[in-house]
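yo, CCA tRNA nucleotidyltransferase is done. seq:
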Amino acid sequence: MPATVTTRRVPTAPRRPVGRSRSPPRIGRVPDEPLSLIALQKRALGVLASLPSDALELGAAFRDAGHELALVGGPVRDAFLGRVSSDLDFTTSATPDETEAILRRWGDAHWDMGREFGTIGARRFGSRHGGADVVVEVTTYRTDAYDPSSRKPEVVFGDTLDGDLSRRDFTVNSMAVRLPELTFVDPFDGLADLARGVLRTPVDPRQSFDDDPLRMMRAARFAAQLGFRVDEAAHAAIVEQAERITIVSAERVRDELTKLLLARQPRLGLQVLVETGLADHVLPELPALRLEIDEHHRHKDVYEHSLTVLDKAIALETGPDGAVPGPDLVLRLAALLHDIGKPRTRRFEDGGGVSFHHHEVVGAKMAAKRLKELRFDKATVQAVARLTELHLRFHGYGEGGWTDSAVRRYVTDAGPLLERLHRLTRSDCTTRNVRKAQRLSAAYDDLEVRIDRLRSQEELDAIRPDLDGTQIMAILDLKPGREVGEAYKHLLALRMEQGPLGPERAEAELRAWWAARA
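structure:
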């Protein structure tokens, strides 16, 4: 069926009253010239024309059963941005039981994704229908609301598409396309906001954020993903209701924060969090970095420095086949959090200096604590904390002249995080002193050359003593136990200090250590 997009109403951008705001909403991009609505519609026409015929068949199946079906949310927004979305999210007038019956006939598999929320999923296998697999999620028209003391939304099913669209987070996500006719529905002027690059709620923002406080986090996330700015009324409402984010589960907050950090422009989303006060409740270590700068500028603006380090680290991520394929959550978290120990360790020294002694150690503990509270997985917590702890290790390399032993320890301590540590350390140089920046870059170039040379000679990534536990027990006539572990650590220390010893010298060193110990 050819795609013909019909716009039900001409989009306009009504003026909204401006609420109170703690700071002007400077966040996100403001297009120099609004994108042409006609150009957006042409983009959408091309994308919607490529919708799988299976989706149109599904629309016909719902229509024949006496129900409405509409493609909604992100896929529609992305179509106007010229992007093909892999997700096909639909909304319908059918009840979950009626939806399940239709999907059972249409698809090759179906499943209950959350019947209490009205969502049923299904898959049609491409191998049986001459194309790619098509996965859909179909949700009954609904409205969400939060009890003031509850962390879970209360779901009430609705009976109109406009009502369902009114409950969505932002107008750019409140557009729909009715199937199978491909009729465009835009009751809240989302297309105009899409053209202007604005995030605006379809209803009063205070009501919207009160119904689901997580939408405030989504404002920050979409600023990072789309480069859009939050409109003034929504910004003011977030400032007013920021504390309400605390009723949302840590897991849901974590998921939004993760999507924000993995977006194209995380800085924009993080600025939304900080400027609206949301970060005070979900990531308080970030706004705490805004240390006041004294009149002599004796230390950097740590907050802006951290955002710059994040930008630079993202630029150093690699393609899929590189050492650190982007977007990399661990690297981005470490770049953002590497200096969070500075506020707690700041000291004003005699003579007017400012110090942050051991801020990397303090910061590592703080990062682990915050990420645990946000329910990040153990591997991510440990990796980010370790990178935070190690990010200063390189300092002094150019002046001190590291021995090969020091280089080995650097590699061994970093372990599988070495490539991320390379990028974090390089990104941490944000000085505007060109000569200093060049000197630091050259010093790290030299360190990487030495690491590569030693790696080729000694298999640095898997440094082990020259004798293993079994050999140690045979030589010293020991049974498994603490003494074997101590002998292993002694040989490992020799290996780190002196490089490969060889079996004969390692045995001699082991016997000498054992005799001295006795």
